[in-house]
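Quick start: load a record and inspect it. Here is Transposase:
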Amino acid sequence: MSDDSNAQVRDDRQWMAEHRYRAVLQVVEGVPVADVARQSGASPQSVYTWLARY
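Running the structure step on this input writes:
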């Protein structure tokens, strides 16, 4: 992989981590899991997994 490809992978991973973290914060603030899942394009099960992880 080139340095540019490696940088893109890091950027994508960072974006995904931030996306998941923001979703978790919404749930912690009281937004229903179903709403967060719909807004983030994920399944409710994924959101529960993120809650357990973060």
